[in-house]
Amino acid sequence: MQAINYFVVIEKIKEAPKTVGGLELTETQNSDVRYLKGKIISAGDKVTMLKEGDVVYYDKHNGHGIQWKDKLYHVLKLGDIVLVE
After folding, report:
1. Are 50 and 42 in contact (CB under 8 A)?
2. DSSP 18
3. Distance CA 85, CA 75 (A)
4. How confident is the model at residue 22 (pLDDT cuts 50, 70, 90)?
5. Distance CA 42, CA 52 (A)
6. If 0-12 CB within 10 Å is exposed, 13-18 middle and 19+ buried, where does residue 78 land?
7. Where are the domains of the chain?
8. Distance CA 19, CA 67 (A)
9. SS3 of 19, please?
10. Are the beta carbons of 71 and 10 closer than 8 angstroms?
11. Whole-number Å distance between alpha carbons of 36 and 63
12. Cα-based distances in Å from 74 to 7, 12, 22, 62
């Protein structure tokens, strides 16, 4: 699978958010968190600053899911990524 143009295919990284006291929250309890984390699987040919394996943060309301070989990935526009780890 190869992304094209300014699109990026990521695999979501699921993390259980924690409170200051160390308690783990479920996704539904963590509605204040706006950005999610993902690992780049494929970057389009016009994406120059990101490469496969980079970990990025993106707005949880952007992009859409795509199923490829029985696995669910997420497709984002380059502009939806807010930072690279």
Report:
1. no
2. B
3. 18
4. low
5. 6
6. middle
7. 7-84
8. 33
9. coil
10. no
11. 12
12. 10, 7, 29, 9
CA distances from 53 to 11, 49, 58, 65, 79 (A): 10, 12, 15, 19, 18
> What number of other Cβ atoms are within 10 A of residue 41's Cβ?
19
Averaged pLDDT for residues 37-45: 96
Residue holding tokens 């143009």? 5
Question: What is the model's pLDDT at position 33?
Answer: 75
Query: Which residue is it, tokens 């690992």?
Result: 39
CB atoms within 10 A of CB 26: 8
**Does 42 score more than 60 pLDDT?**
yes
What is the greatest pairwise CA distance in the chain? 44
Q: Is domain 7-84 classified as CATH 2.60.40.4070? A: no
